[in-house]
């Protein structure tokens, strides 16, 4: 990460700056904040891990912000109904914390988190307690409706510091938005991909307590934009009374009651693998089911593009007969794209964009990693499965495959995939983005006649003042009538047909990959 911070400072003087109106007080022990956006990239949001150290949090937020990030998302801890082997021992007054003298305890849930709850969480004297034990801080909370109830379900929450509070304060100083993860539902033991409905009522009671605490603790912080739904599901046609959709509906109703007007972010996955996944034709129904759980709140559905896990390929429409990319072979075998998959990412995103429900935004989650690491490559070893580091050129292809449809592109996940280095003297993915952020990315190209001249309208990033190169033939044509917006657009006089196009902008940077013709003519 130190390399990207150095690059950010080096290029900041030659690009536009974005400085929040009120960065707020700086932690006294940390360096001064640098709130410049030095290398704005197409990906503008990342999953991050809250850190108890304020200065580490500041450096992370600053590095994300410097390459154009304005959104941070965290995973919610598991609301665990079963014994958690990783949960640290907790003792109070010579007893296990789960024992409350004079009270009957029916169920104990554990919650391993990275935040410090506020005093409002402690409602029942003698039962609810903040406990220091074994070098960690614990919160013991009852979920009973009354402090005098005959029996109690308890939550034991363990934390190593207020990482989420640090993140929220730093993000506010940088003009960013944070979506902390909702408590994640306990999983069924026999089907861990499903929530355990027997504990939904307890989950909702705890969720309401947590969100009430957020409403108080984060009331003065501009970064608090809403919450992230941490329990994962596939965006496909689902059975009636689907347990995950039922969970969403119940927990989102709690969010609506506690945080009116705040946004819910959901990131469903797609799986294009033949025999295991589903075709793009199922996407619209899955999208509608998810949107139906928003309980009147604004919602962002950030579709996981599937390339990082190998569940969905990134290729041009005419490349069905081509062999899958080498990094996908361990997932689907050495076969063609069409043999392995129902279609590429672009087909699934287009299917989602065709019918976006009211009150919902379509985002794309471009998975910033490879299905498995290769020798000499950094990545993630824990938790399993191990994942590898990808390249900026591959990430550019994912942005390109998303097309003009998403309101926002985000990525899982910042640490370690954007920060790891194969060696101390080699760049991270974030460093590569900082060095190559001006490389153009075309996300759409359509035929358009202007003033009687046949031509091509392109949309994308960092196109200004340059040329387009069309294949086959290699014709180079200067851009005309450039305009700014959510995406830049420009028109060139060029007759169809063509197979692919790349851009070179006025700064001399060229696309890392060509945009394939998707028009059927």
What's this entry about, in short?
It holds the Pfam family DUF4434. The protein is 23% helix and 21% strand.
CA-based gyration radius = 25 Å
Q: What would you call the quaternary organization?
A: single chain
Note the main sheet.
8 strands, parallel
Secondary structure class reads alpha/beta
Global mean pLDDT: 93
What distance lies between the first and last C-alpha atoms, to the nearest angstrom? Answer: 47 Å
Write down how many β-strands occur, each being a DSSP E stretch of 2 or more residues. Answer: 24
Low confidence ranges: 1-23
Strand neighbour order, sheet with most strands: 9-2-1-16-13-12-11-10
Count of helical stretches: 12
Proportion of residues in extended strands: 15-25%
Helix content: 10-25%
Task: Write down the overall geometry.
Answer: globular
SSE diagram, text form:
Elements: H1 2-11, E1 45-47, H2 54-66, E2 71-73, E3 91-92, E4 95-96, E5 104-113, E6 129-133, E7 136-142, E8 151-159, H3 163-173, E9 177-179, H4 200-217, E10 226-228, H5 243-258, E11 263-266, H6 283-291, E12 299-304, H7 329-332, H8 337-340, H9 345-353, E13 360-365, E14 379-380, E15 387-388, H10 392-402, E16 408-411, H11 414-418, H12 429-436, E17 441-447, E18 456-461, E19 467-471, E20 475-478, E21 480-483, E22 488-492, E23 500-504, E24 515-516
Parallel strand pairs: 1-2, 1-16, 2-9, 5-8, 10-11, 11-12, 12-13, 13-16
Antiparallel strand pairs: 3-4, 6-7, 7-8, 14-15, 17-18, 18-22, 19-20, 19-23, 21-22, 23-24
Helix pairs in contact: 1-12, 2-3, 4-5
Domain DUF4434: 162-373
Pfam families: DUF4434
InterPro entries: DUF4434
């Amino acid at each position: 990460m130190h390399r990207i911070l150095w690059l950010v400072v080096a290029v900041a003087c030659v690009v536009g700056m974005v400085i929040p109106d009120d960065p707020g007080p700086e932690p006294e022990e940390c360096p001064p904040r640098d709130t410049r956006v030095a290398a704005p990239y197409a990906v503008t949001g990342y999953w991050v891990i809250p850190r108890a150290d304020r200065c580490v949090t500041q450096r992370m937020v600053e590095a994300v912000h410097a390459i154009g990030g304005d959104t941070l998302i965290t995973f919610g801890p598991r609301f665990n109904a079963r014994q958690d082997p990783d949960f640290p021992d907790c003792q109070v007054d010579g007893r296990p914390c789960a024992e409350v003298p004079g009270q009957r305890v029916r169920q104990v849930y554990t919650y391993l988190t990275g935040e410090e709850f506020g005093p409002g969480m402690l409602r029942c004297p003698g039962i609810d307690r903040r406990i220091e034990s074994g070098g960690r801080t614990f919160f013991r909370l009852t979920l009973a409706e009354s402090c005098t109830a005959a029996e109690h379900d308890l939550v034991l929450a363990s934390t190593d510091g207020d990482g989420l509070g640090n993140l929220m304060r730093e993000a506010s100083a940088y003009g960013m938005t944070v979506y902390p993860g909702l408590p994640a539902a306990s999983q069924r033991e026999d089907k861990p991909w499903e929530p355990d409905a027997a504990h939904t009522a307890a989950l909702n009671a705890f969720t309401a307590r947590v969100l009430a605490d957020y409403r108080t603790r984060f009331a003065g912080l501009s970064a608090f934009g809403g919450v992230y739904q941490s329990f994962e599901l596939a965006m496909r046609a689902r059975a009636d009374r689907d347990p995950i959709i039922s969970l969403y509906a119940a927990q989102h109703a709690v969010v609506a009651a506690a945080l009116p007007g705040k946004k819910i972010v959901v990131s469903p996955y797609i799986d294009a693998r033949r025999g295991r996944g589903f075709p793009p034709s199922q996407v619209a129904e899955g999208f509608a089911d998810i949107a139906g759980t928003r309980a009147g709140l604004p919602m962002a559905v950030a579709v996981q593009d599937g390339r990082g896990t190998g569940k969905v390929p990134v290729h041009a429409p005419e490349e069905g007969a081509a062999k899958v990319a080498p990094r996908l072979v361990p997932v689907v075998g050495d076969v063609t794209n069409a043999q392995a998959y129902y279609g590429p990412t672009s087909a699934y995103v287009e299917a989602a964009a065709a019918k976006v429900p009211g009150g919902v935004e379509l985002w794309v989650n471009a998975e910033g990693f490879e299905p498995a690491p290769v020798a000499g490559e950094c990545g993630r070893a824990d938790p399993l499965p191990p994942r590898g580091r990808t390249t900026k050129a591959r990430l550019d292809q994912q942005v390109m495959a998303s097309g003009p449809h998403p309101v926002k592109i985000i990525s899982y996940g910042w640490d370690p995939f954007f920060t790891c280095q194969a060696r101390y003297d080699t760049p991270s993915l974030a460093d590569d983005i900082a060095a190559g952020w001006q490389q153009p990315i075309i996300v759409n190209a359509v035929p358009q006649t202007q003033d009687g001249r046949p031509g091509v309208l392109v949309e994308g990033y960092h196109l200004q003042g340059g040329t387009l190169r069309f294949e086959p033939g290699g014709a180079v044509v200067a851009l005309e009538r450039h305009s700014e917006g959510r995406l830049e657009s420009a028109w060139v006089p060029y007759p169809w047909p063509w197979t692919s196009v790349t851009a070179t902008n006025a700064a001399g940077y060229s696309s890392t990959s060509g945009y394939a013709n998707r028009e059927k003519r």
